[in-house]
Design a protein that fits this description.
The protein has no helices and eleven strands. It has strands spanning 2-6, 9-12, 17-24, 32-38, 45-51, 57-58, 67-72, 77-82, 91-97, 106-107, 111-116.
Length: 117
């Protein structure tokens, strides 16, 4: 199993980014896959995760509607659409599975998101 993220970058405050996570080898749709982030000097925090079988969300309200997680099971890919980004969203964003673990067993390499003011 392997998680591969893409889509990070530098964006101005108020802008948008979409992160993608391809979940190679995670065949069972019951897996809960999603996103964590870690900003410099801060603890890692859960952003949003989704159970691919039924779309149930975990951590879904943590960003007050600015972030939306979705899953394309045919492509084995989980997306995080981030709108109205703020400088405090600057962090390395990691894809992880299974989000119900503490911590999850599998992690991607991370993708940097930087929001300038």
């Amino acid at each position: 199993e392997q998680l591969v993220e893409s889509g990070g970058g530098l964006v101005q405050a108020g802008g948008s980014l979409r992160l993608s996570c391809v979940a190679y080898g995670f065949v069972a749709e019951d897996y809960v896959i999603g996103w964590f982030r870690q900003a410099p000097g801060k603890d890692r925090e859960g952003v949003s995760c989704i159970r691919r079988s039924d779309g149930r969300l975990y951590f879904g309200d943590s960003n007050k509607g600015r972030f939306t997680i979705s899953s394309d099971n045919a492509k084995n890919t989980v997306y995080l659409q981030m709108n109205n980004l703020k400088p405090e969203d600057t962090a390395v964003y990691y894809c992880a599975a299974d989000c119900r673990g503490d911590p999850p067993d599998y992690w991607g390499q991370g993708t940097q998101v930087t929001v300038s003011s």
